[in-house]
Amino acid sequence: MIGRTLTGIIITAFVILTNTTVFAQESRFKYDDMGYYSENMTTVKINGKWGCIDKNGVEIIPAIYDEIGGFGWLDTEDIATIKRDGKMGYINRAGKEIIAPKYDLTTDFMDGRGKVMTDGKWGFVDKMGKEIVPLVYDEAQFFRDDYTQVKKNGKWGFIDKNGKEIGKLIYDKIYPWGFEEGITAAKRNGKWGFINREGMEVIPPKYQETSRWLFVGGLAAVLRDDRWGYIDKNAHEVIKPIYKGAGDFLGDLAPVKLFNKWKYIDKAGNTVLAAIYDSADNFYEGVAVVSVNGKYGMINTEGKEIVPAKYEKIDYPFDQLIPVKQNGKWGFADRSGVEVIAPVYEQINYLRGGLIPVMIAGKWGYIDGDGKKITPLKYDKVSIWGLMENLSAVRENGKWGFVNKDGQEIVKPMYDEVGLLWHNERMTVKRDGKWGYIDLSGKEIIVPKYDKAQEFSWDGLAGVKRKGHWGYIRPDGVAEPWSLK
Predict the structure, then answer these.
(1) Which of 25, 37, 90, 358 has its CA 20 to 30 A from that of 296?
(2) Residue 171's beta-bridge partner residues?
(3) Residues facing 223 on adjacent strands
(4) Confidence band for 75, pLDDT divided at 50, 70 and 90
């Protein structure tokens, strides 16, 4: 008996000592702040300055900068922005300054070019640090397909990746998405025209408006003399401007408004579906929402009613279900038009991971794709993302928990906040003002004790803050020695 008691005392003492050691270690975290690990590197702040370390804590970039951006956010190259003494430049993953800080502002690289600004003027640099485009522009967009839009003296135009101006900078506005089918829309003196990649006006400015999406299906809608028509990429008016409204050719058909009704035409301008609709949307995945006498339905490209026009509102299908609204309530129809879930819900969301969030009288729950109730409608809020790792977050009486695909509460609502994503089978949770981690079974793997906590990276590390300083822990909760003072 005495031996067992002594053994128990020793074990208890060991646990207390271990926990005390861990807590003591964590009180010695050495970083002021830190970023997220990505591709074996993260940014850290120490003594008020930023640098970078690898997953073993080895310094890659010394902590001498006021700011460091992320590596590869918008580009595949490993270059980040840096700031020191109020000026900005660029650095690579090896810690070499590609451009020493000298600009007022720099942006991430995109399409091989970084956008830089000094004294309110913009230009571009390449990845070798050379100023390819001089800093002479009032505004500049990012490069896309070797071209970008720039503004000087109040007028817009194009330059190529070498800084050569393509045509003249004479436009009040340019279509924001660049060139489509080799040409794009540009506005001058209140009218829209079209220019090609050489900067030539293939169609002089004469249109009041253009469609949001240019040359989808090879044609673009244009407005002239208050009537819509269509042009092709060769600047020919293939369908004369005679319509009061026009959609896009997302398929072989586009909706157009003739007098007070909408119909569908083909790319030759022939009527395919008669003008019987009060409103008509573009076709999407072979179906379109239309309305007749104030009620909405859905048709296919042959004009057949997929969903009868009897609803107050219809949204486009997500997966195989079509959201429908009737008498102020939402339900779902399938793609054959059968109402598979009766409209009884005040709010719904889309089917994700096999679950649909639904709400009645301010309370949320989940149903499946057949309308079967998976959880009672008792929650203040549920995750719109549905199942992730076979669990979904739910909130009741201000506290968060988790349910599985069968609606069982794997984690009773007890947390003030929960994270968004599972990483390394861990999720951040907050209780009594402190953060910790649970695993997929709902067990608290790391008891909430941190002031802040990051998600675990794919490298198996998470940044945590305790007593004003940051450090790194492993999935088992043990602090990385190199992140301690």
Answers:
(1) 358
(2) 156
(3) 209, 228
(4) low
In total, the chain counts a number of residues equal to: 485
Burial 7-43 (b: 16+ CB within 10 A, else e): eeeeeeeeeeeeeeeeeebbeebebbebbebeeebbb
**pLDDT tens-digit map of 222-252:** 999 999 999 988 878 999 999 999 999 988 9
What's the confidence (pLDDT) of residue 319?
A: 76
DSSP type of residue 8: H
403 touches 390 (CB < 8 A): no
pLDDT at 23 over 50: no
Q: Exposure pattern of 174-193 as b/e (b: 16+ CB <10 Å)? A: bbeebbbeebbbbbbeeebb
Q: CA–CA separation, 440 vs 425, rounded Å?
A: 6
Checking 386-392 for CB contacts under 8 A at 24+ apart, the result is: 386/351, 386/352, 386/353, 386/354, 386/355, 386/356, 386/357, 387/352, 387/353, 387/354, 387/355, 388/353, 388/421, 388/422, 389/422, 389/425, 389/440, 390/440, 391/422, 391/440, 392/353, 392/355, 392/366
Summarised one tens digit per residue, pLDDT across range 456-468 is 988 789 999 999 9
Its pTM stands at: 0.83
Strand order in the sheet with 287-292: 279-280, 287-292, 295-300, 305-311
CB 131 within 8 A of CB 125: yes
**According to the model, what pLDDT value does residue 24 have?**
47
Give me the amino acid identity at 92. Answer: N
Residues 6+ apart with CB under 8 A from 11: none
Q: Please enumerate in sequence order all residues whose Cβ is within 8 A of that of 162, keeping only pairs 6 or more positions apart, or say none.
A: 132, 133
pLDDT above 90 covers a percentage of the chain that reads 72
Q: Which residues contact 160 (CB under 8 A, 6 or more apart)?
A: 146, 147, 166
Give me the residues paired with residue 299 across strands: 288, 305
